[in-house]
Inverse folding.
């Protein structure tokens, strides 16, 4: 994995600082600002999430096992039921609490927690079913236009085939791609997004409403979206930032912009593109509340796809494969969380530094080492 | 057997009970398997409430007089709705089955992303009616706004009046029938002859939706590629449209 923020370093405490004690548990910023009164609860999650995964490229059993394994590693996963359910509409991942409810109640005295799950709510809602709203942690309203592998604003035929339920003998668009949209067709303008959010809160009580945006028109888009009081914002910085400094600067400036617009408690989640575990911790320290780690799977993904798949393989095979993947990822998660814990006793402004004055000035970092 | 006089009839007031409580009470209505008619629910106090009567998967007939706001009847299935009054945006959003008949006007995005059932609007509908729909049928007796059927993957849209600009933009396996004039067709969309079988099909659809008129008065609007595939009958051999 590429380290893009190598020039940024974590600061250690001063020599005379007393023993800092064990790290406190990671406290994720509250997701639902409206103070959910939903009757379900979710597991404690890390600030790491999967945002844009090509689930349709995997066998549904395989994809389902991976989603379960990652959630059990406390990574939030964004996926529709139709993307990972089998032909009988079963999804162990989505139905997780029901699977072992009795056992869990017996052991802990209360029902099992839902797996942390984001619902990608695209403008067209292809593949979305009403069951996706059940027990969801976050509804991610995507006000972005999807690009397919060719770079078009489109969805591929393979993606549509996984999503949709039209008669298989009549392929959609003759088996070709279909254009993708940006804005929900039932919302006349940005000012009326509030109504859409209210509908989604009604359909998915307890879920937080996040909005995904591209960064190209950030100020005007953020102004418009934040006026409707979403619970969180996700910015796809991978579409614009190629250099580490660009990425870090965008995170700092976007956090500041959201604060200036009067929403200092609204979480900012980011999709940074390729990063490593250290970068994730640094981006969180710079102001992100959640970081997409899709790139951590790039090499593992190729291995999984190369591995044999098919109906003759048992679910236990897929589970073992997924657990291996989660185990590989676990180290990176621990690295990110470890770095975050290591600085939690330092004031926020003193946690990072850089020897490079360009980086230091752009990110307004303190200068270290202090030699006079 | 239940006689008509024994018809289950429930009255619920939206303004007194609130939308949540009304929806919950509807879901709790017991449905006799051998009943000749669906249980009837008369909804009173409809004064433009948003998000009313959503996600009801229950075979009941709802009769509503008054106005409803945005996202009425979203994600419903099996319900039979007869409403007199206007509705807001996103009416029938994600509807799966059943029928919704509205004697009034609808806002933007009526029937968007619906996958089945029938949505009949006896007034006019706003912009992007039938957007991203994947199945089912939408009937609008009056006019529709711009970009009707945008991104629709399947289903049927019948327009009794005129359509705004960009009709059928980015639509795929959807068929649009229009009686009036379209301000403009979207790129890649064309008018196609109404074949005998479509006249029969449309005639039946009009009867089912209680819309007066003859099928021959309508014209068919389809994606150009869909028409070419139809004409060459190469749909399966050379299916790629784009």
């Amino acid at each position: 994995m590429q380290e893009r923020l190598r020039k940024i370093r974590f600061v250690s405490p001063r020599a005379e600082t007393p023993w800092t004690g064990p790290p406190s548990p990671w406290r994720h910023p509250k997701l639902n600002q409206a103070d959910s009164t939903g009757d379900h609860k979710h597991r404690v999650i890390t600030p790491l999430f999967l945002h844009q995964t090509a689930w349709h490229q995997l066998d549904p059993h395989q994809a389902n096992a991976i989603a379960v394994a990652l959630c059990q590693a406390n990574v939030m996963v964004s996926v529709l039921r139709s993307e990972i359910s089998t032909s009988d509409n079963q999804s162990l991942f989505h139905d997780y609490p029901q699977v072992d409810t009795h056992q869990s109640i017996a052991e802990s005295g209360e029902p099992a927690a839902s797996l942390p799950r984001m619902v990608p709510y695209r403008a067209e809602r292809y593949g979305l079913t009403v069951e996706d709203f059940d027990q969801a942690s976050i509804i991610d309203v995507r006000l972005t236009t999807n690009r397919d592998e060719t770079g078009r604003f489109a969805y591929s035929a393979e993606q549509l085939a996984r999503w949709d339920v039209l008669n298989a003998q009549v392929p959609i668009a003759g088996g070709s791609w279909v254009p993708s949209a940006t804005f929900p067709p039932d919302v006349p303008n940005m000012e009326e997004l509030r109504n859409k959010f209210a509908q989604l809160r009604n359909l998915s009580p307890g879920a937080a409403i996040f909005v995904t945006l591209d960064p190209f028109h950030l100020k005007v888009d953020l102004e418009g979206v934040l006026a409707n009081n979403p619970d969180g914002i996700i910015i796809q910085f991978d579409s614009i930032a190629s250099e580490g400094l660009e990425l870090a600067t965008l995170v700092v400036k976007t956090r500041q912009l959201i604060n200036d617009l009067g929403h200092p408690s609204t979480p900012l989640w980011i999709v940074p593109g390729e990063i490593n575990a250290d970068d994730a911790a640094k981006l969180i320290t710079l102001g992100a509340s959640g970081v997409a780690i899709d790139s951590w799977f790039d090499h593992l993904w190729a291995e999984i796809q190369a591995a044999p798949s098919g109906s003759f393989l048992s679910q236990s095979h897929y589970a073992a494969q997924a657990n291996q993947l989660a185990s590989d990822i676990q180290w990176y998660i621990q690295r990110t969380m470890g770095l975050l814990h290591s600085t939690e006793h330092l004031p926020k402004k003193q946690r990072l530094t850089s020897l490079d004055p360009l980086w230091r000035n752009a990110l307004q970092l303190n200068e270290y080492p202090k030699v006079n | 057997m239940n006689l008509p006089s024994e018809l289950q009839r429930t009255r619920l007031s939206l303004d007194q009970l609130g939308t949540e409580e009304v929806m919950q009470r509807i879901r709790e209505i017991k449905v006799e398997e051998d009943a000749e008619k669906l249980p009837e629910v008369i909804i009173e106090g409809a004064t433009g409430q948003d998000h009313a009567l959503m996600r009801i998967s229950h075979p009941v007939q709802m009769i509503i007089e008054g106005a409803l706001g945005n996202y009425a009847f979203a994600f419903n299935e099996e319900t039979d709705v007869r409403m007199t009054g206007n509705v807001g945006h996103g009416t029938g959003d994600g509807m799966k089955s059943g029928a919704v008949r509205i004697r009034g006007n609808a806002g933007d995005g009526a029937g968007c992303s619906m996958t089945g059932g029938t949505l009949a609007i006896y007034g006019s509908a706003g912009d992007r009616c039938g957007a991203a729909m994947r199945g089912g049928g939408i009937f609008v007796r009056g006019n529709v706004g711009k970009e009707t059927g945008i991104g629709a993957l399947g289903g049927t849209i019948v327009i009794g009046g005129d359509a705004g600009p960009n009709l059928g933009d980015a639509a795929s396996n959807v068929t649009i029938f229009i009686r009036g004039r379209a301000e403009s067709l979207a790129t890649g969309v064309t008018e196609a002859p109404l074949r005998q079988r479509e006249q029969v099909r449309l005639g039946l659809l009009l009867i089912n939706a209680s819309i007066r008129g003859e099928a021959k008065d309508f014209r068919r609007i389809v994606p150009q590629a869909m028409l070419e595939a139809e004409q060459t009958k190469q749909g399966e051999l050379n299916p790629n449209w784009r």
